[in-house]
Design goal:
Layout: H1 30-33, H2 39-49, H3 51-60, E1 65-66, H4 67-73, H5 79-91, E2 95-100, E3 106-111, H6 113-116, H7 119-144
Helix pairs in contact: 3-7
């Protein structure tokens, strides 16, 4: 899905190492000031940042898909894990589920407006992983052989 270096669908340029934003020194970072000791922050980040959610969001950013097609296109995911991921994303308002009264029944999943707002972030993350995968693999190899 993200193996090829393709242009971001929103035509947003990927940041270069020198243009990355830093948090201003005079404003507390959200990780330090989140209410409830960051529980809600961590839950949301855990949900939208897990590997299955990122892949599902990336695929659904291309348009609605049925469960079977999603299952085929997300390598390594079990039916149970895909079901749980879709339910969680639906609960969080990222994905909508539409059941059509047909025989056989047809159910499609698609990103909501909130989910669409994650598109550029998911593509940026996928692009970073793609761009740096060789470096990460090398670092892992060096770590594992010491």
């Amino acid at each position: 899905m993200f193996a090829e270096h393709t242009a971001d669908p929103d035509h947003a340029a990927a940041p270069t190492p020198h243009s990355q934003e830093t948090w201003p020194d005079d404003i507390p970072h959200p990780c330090e000031t989140w209410p409830d000791n960051g529980r809600g922050f961590r839950e949301t980040l855990d949900r939208i940042g897990d590997k299955w959610s990122v892949l599902v969001i990336g695929l659904l950013s291309q348009g609605p898909l049925r469960f079977g097609m999603l299952h085929q296109r997300v390598p390594g995911i079990s039916q149970r894990m895909l079901t749980l991921t879709l339910r969680h994303l639906e609960r969080d308002g990222i994905v909508s589920r539409t059941a059509y009264a047909e025989v056989p029944p047809r159910v499609e999943y698609e990103l909501t407006a909130l989910g669409e707002s994650l598109r550029a972030t998911v593509y940026a993350l996928a692009r970073w992983v793609t761009d740096h995968n060789d470096e990460i693999e090398t670092a892992r190899h060096h770590y594992d052989t010491r």
